[in-house]
Amino acid sequence: MKSLRRALIALGALGFLAGAVPLAAALATETGHQRELIAITGPLIGWAFIGTGIFAWLRQPENRLGALMTAVGFSACLAGLRVSTDSWVFVVGLLFITSQWALLYHMLLAFPGGTLRTTFERVLVGAMYVNSIVLHPVQVLFLDTSRQGFPDNPLLIDANPDLSLILGRIRFWSALVLIAALAVILARRWMAARGAQRQALAPVLVSGGIVMVLLFVWYAGLLAEIDPDVIDGLEDARYVVLATVPFAFLAGLLRSRVAEATAVSEIVARLGDPNVRRGGVCHALADALQGTSLEIAYLVPEEGVYVNDAGERIEIPPADPDRLSTPLEAGDQPGAVLTYDATREDERELVRAVAAAATLTLENERLAADLHAKVEELSASRARIVESGDAARRRLERDLHDGAQQRLVSLALGLRILATRLDGDTE
């Protein structure tokens, strides 16, 4: 942990210098491309993403979002080099101008756990990276920037505006499709989220979503060849909103942690309340896990199958390879099993907390049942001892009544008869 902290401090110092680069480049020229925009938003975006990314990275090293945010910051700083009038510095900025959008795309899909959940999401992110780090550089090789009033392109292979236009249109259309797919996925996540999870998603979807909408409209405007002033206005707005994104992601991450802690607290509270548990531990857990990917399956002994709280049958182990299961009770066929989404790294601690709480509760209930059974057995044993003692006392009384008592009475009568026969002659 100490080595990571030192490395991140060094990375932060490097990030501070990187954020100053676009500002210095903008101040060094009066005719650079987007000079005013880069002078303001360049260091702001770079420092904001790098600073919040390092903070998130340090707080949650296992979460890749911190690294992604830091990468966006450095990418934005490098993209700001396009303000320079030097040909090589300008072309470096031109090459990095699209990478920040691919990284942001990755961040939106990976939030909040830092990993992509499905193969389809991985395909989308891979396609977005190909769009930005393959198609765009290839287009630059055939783009004569001097014709557009920019510095010469030192990477120019052949000034072929038609080929450059075709590659640009392919890149724009593919970006539109990818952004539309992103919108569908994020909308579904929002619909599936509940309570605290929605609060964690809200700032991310608002800021990141606005940036992606502006990027979508910007690409569509380029394809439609609308007024260049409108295109420039959309680009300026996009960079202004981009400066708010890292703070929204940081707020979302913190809210996600709060949401997770809230879920754990709710579970512990429900499992600790006898009135709530009266309907069954599994039902109490199912109520507390609303809005998460976790699901409780419990055994129907008569049929030998597992069902969820709604009575629907669940395969154990799950048929879906992206879902895993962990038993909440010991044995070859546990009475309760927890299933969860293996790709949701943000819920790993929640899985452990739920499993620990449920296992402890079930074990406590088992011990309580065993204690109750032993108390009942002790009570029954004491009752049998008392009953046996009473029977022995009655038997002793009966034996005394039928045996020694009768003999004593008979002896007393015999003595009296003998005394009457002696007539006072004691000898």
Provide a descriptive summary of the structure in words.
The chain is built from 14 helices and 5 strands. By secondary structure, it is mainly alpha-helical. The longest helix has 55 residues, at 348-402.
Largest sheet: 5 strands, antiparallel
Give helix % range: over 70%
Low-confidence stretches: none
The dominant shape is rod-shaped
Series of secondary-structure elements, N-terminal to C-terminal: HHHHHHHHHHHHEEEEEHH
Using only C-alpha atoms, the radius of gyration works out to 40 Å
* Secondary structural class: mainly alpha
Mean pLDDT: 78
**Distance N terminus to C terminus?**
115 Å
- For the secondary structure, the number of strands is 5
Number of helices: 14
Report the β-strand fraction as a percent range: 5-15%
Q: Major sheet: order of its strands?
A: 3-2-1-5-4
A few lines on this structure:
With 427 residues, the protein is mostly helical.
List keywords for this structure.
14 helices, mainly alpha, 5 strands, 427 residues, 70% helix, 5% strand, rod-shaped
